[in-house]
Amino acid sequence: MKKIIIGEHFKNYYLTSGVTRDNFVFENCMPEFMAEASKLLGVPRDGIKVCNIIINKGTEDLILKTLEHCEDDIRRKLLVRDFLCAKIMYVLLWEINGRETDSMVALRNGINAIIDNNWADFAKFHPTCPMPHDITNLARKLGKIELNIFLYDCKSAYLQQAINNYISRREPYSVTVFTTKNRLSSYCYQVGNIIECPHDFMQRDVRNFVQVVEANTEK
């Protein structure tokens, strides 16, 4: 069994909701660290609504399978953008309501259509899917939110560019990306421009702050 050791300063500054003001990208995240980080950041403070999005390789592979239906690059980008927007909006609304409301059912169905490779249902969902500015407007109404995205072994440039949209927009909320990889799959956002450190985000290598050791299981 492995044990994660996180320094108190790192935990208090980066893994506590309501503290971070900038956008961050954390690289070389161990799976054990990712699990602990999502748990710590999932604890709301001072009325902050925390939006944790977890995407693993299995989910990414299902999205890529649905992308095979797309005739061109524009449609591929729209599909991935819709998936991410719907996912973020659904999680935020759940944080607000504490349950699934009638208005959230369409979001869930749209997300499932993409994951289940159901192109017909996705085509119906697309015209009603929220846009990034809808999330921004909701964030302004709520007062303060945080968006944390956890990427487990994800390597799709399409997915990463959709995520980078939020970093590039300099939203009125902090965006933090955690990846198990040593770098992002892409540093462009969907219109083709580049996100840069430190202008758009701050960069941290988790290996410099976190240790994973074998836990002593002896009694």
Structural overview:
The longest helix has 25 residues, at 73-97. Helix 4 (73-97) runs antiparallel to helix 5 (102-115), helix 4 (73-97) packs across helix 8 and helix 5 (102-115) runs antiparallel to helix 6. It contains 8 helices and 7 strands, in the order E-H-E-H-E-H-H-H-H-H-E-H-E-E-E. It is globular and about 50 Å long. The chain is an alpha/beta fold. The chain has helices at residues 8-14, 31-41, 57-67, 73-97, 102-115, 119-125, 132-142, 157-168, and strands at residues 2-6, 24-27, 49-56, 145-152, 174-179, 202-205, 210-214. The strands form 2 sheets. It has a 5-stranded parallel sheet with strand order 3-4-5-2-6, with helices on both faces. Strands 1-7 form a two-stranded antiparallel ribbon. It starts with a strand and ends in a 5-residue tail after the last strand.
N-to-C span: 14 Å
* Total number of beta strands: 7
Shape field:
globular
Q: Count of helices?
A: 8
Structural class: alpha/beta
Task: Please mark out the parts with pLDDT under 50 across 5 or more consecutive residues, or reply none.
Answer: none
Task: Report the major sheet.
Answer: 5 strands, parallel
Roughly how many Å is the radius of gyration? 18 Å
User: Numbering strands along the chain, what is their spatial order in the largest sheet?
Assistant: 3-4-5-2-6
Beta-strand percent range: 15-25%
Pattern of helices and strands: EHEHEHHHHHEHEEE
Helix fraction bin: 40-55%
Mean pLDDT: 92
